[in-house]
Amino acid sequence: MLNGRTAAVLLVIGCLVVGVGFTQSQPAPDAAVGTGDSRQTLANNWNDFLHYTRIARLDLAKGYGQAILQSKPNPSELFQLVQANQQGYEWALKIADTSRDEELAKMTSQLLALVDQGRFQQRTEPKIIVDEVRRLSSTPRGKMTAIRRLKDAGEYAVPFLLDTMTQAIQDPSTETKLSDMIEALPQIGRPAVRPLAAALQTENARLRAEIIRALGAIGYPEALPYLKHVAEKAPAADLRDLALATMRTIDPQAVGTPAAALFYHLAERYYYHDESLAPTAGLPFGNLWFWDAQANRLQRVEVDPACFHELMAMRCCEWSLRAEEQFGPSIGLWLAAFLKAECTGVPMPGYFGQNHAKALVYATTAGPEYLHQALARAVNDRHAGVALGAVEALATTAGEKSLMYTLGPSQPLLQALMFPDQAVRYSAAIAIANAGPRQEFSESRTVVRNLAEALTKNAQPASATGGQPWTPELAEMYALRSAQALLGVAASRNPTIDLSLAQPALVGATKDPRAEIRVLAGQILAYLSSPDAQRAIAALALNGENDANVRSAAFGALVVSAKLHGNVLPDVVVGDIYQLISSGQTDAAVRAAAAAAYGALNLPSQRVKDLILDQAKS
């Protein structure tokens, strides 16, 4: 329900709108919707919207703006109005950016979004593009107009031009002359590079040659890898020579670089979001271009702009490997790009297919060399998501030698131990601990510190991991994994990792609210040669608030500690264990476990004698 003040304001605005409608002998905004010719109505509402914003009658301006939105206008018609009044469009942009009236600014932005949709529809309408291609062979003036409009259509014009060029190559008597299309194609400029590069896969040698010439005339360096691939792989010598000659016109120094390396460098530019390679601005998608060999034409696939650069980086790496199967750096970069794409959280594109594996599957299959390449890049870039994916894959598959892999002057996994993101640090420590290294390494203390921190780390909503919130579930998962890794190190009596650094955390973990963590902490402490460690185990076992399973497991850990280090418990604690064993109220399983621990402590025979006599009936 409306409150009194809101209702009063609406009533005043309504009266003003009606009053102005009578004085100007024109319909009020609401009355204009859907009456008379819809195009004229839209034009009237748009012009009145602009007029009332200029004279600061914002109440009336909002009324006409709302009328436009409610009428659900054809975006193309609205765009045509803007084309006819560019000054008004500039004014609307200013209102959207600077108006202090939030409602008006929001409404104007919605109208401008419709204008952008209309602009896109006009540029990409197939019938319009086909007509402009046909117009190329009309009059000189018509040709100039057609080239201008095809240039405005950008990448969307390329498939239609190539289709018509193919027809003209096969049948020179076609209406549109091949020479006119050859002239028009490079004038589309940079937006044509991606579709033209994809179209180089055509089997039509004449068309392929004209695409090469067009890429040379456009002159942008992202075409170089594709041209070099033709120079290396094309069966016809004249095409190879033409590709090399075209490369020289763009960048003579690139001629001596293998296609695999050129594709790799282009992939890096995409990976790091080079602005010159960005998709068309203002659209909710980017275009990836493929060559459909069966249909013999270009195919366009829309992808989310959030992962456009990563997907293009992957495609460039794939082309690099087509050019040279053994070009290893492209494998590492492909893995990093795939992990980075998944970090965006948007669905992967349809061309992946339903059975396309996740990035982690490829990462674990790739092997440590390429994973270390991806990890080194992520560490250098401080990209938590890529680093975490690479570390987790290494933890799954790599042994000691692989984990300590040296890449140039650095060891990526050891560097990951100091990564800003806590999950990356923890995962790196877990991976190293689970690998059971036997060679001394200076970062061993850092491994223990990270494991101890993960064991006791609680959820902190303000922190994040791999771009995701640090949740209680994540904290619990890392605590459990770290405890298991620590136990593995302890049980293997690993000489290179000093677990005594984790003793304070482990002692604290014996009081953790999670039973599994308490048990694991006691089991790890059993391997530490320290009175405090053994006393913490005993305290865990004697604590009556713990359930029978936890207490029994703790006494089991005390057995291990006693066997390894002997009895270092105070007499009072030994007495408490004795009382537990001698009491008929003690749970049978706990009593048996306590008795085993008592025996393992190898106490003087007097204690055992007392226990025997205490139970004697006479």
Question: Your description of this structure?
Answer:
The protein is built from 33 helices and four strands. The protein has helices at residues 4-23, 29-32, 38-54, 58-70, 75-84, 86-98, 102-124, 126-135, 140-153, 158-170, 178-184, 193-199, 205-218, 224-233, 237-250, 259-271, 308-323, 328-343, 359-366, 368-381, 384-397, 400-403, 412-416, 422-435, 444-456, 472-491, 503-509, 515-525, 531-542, 548-565, 571-582, 588-600, 605-615; strands at residues 286-292, 297-303, 464-465, 468-469. Helix content is 66%, strand content 3%. The protein has 618 residues and is mostly helical.
Strand order of the largest sheet: 1-2
Instruction: Name the helicity range.
Output: 55-70%
Q: What is the count of DSSP helices, taking H or I runs of 4+ residues? A: 33
**Percent of sequence in beta strands:** under 5%
Distance between the termini: 89 Å
The low-confidence runs, each spanning 5 or more residues with pLDDT under 50, are 1-36
Structural class, please? mainly alpha
Mean pLDDT: 87
Label the overall shape: elongated
Using the CA coordinates, give the radius of gyration. 37 Å
How many strand elements?
Answer: 4
Task: Characterize the biggest β-sheet.
Answer: 2 strands, antiparallel
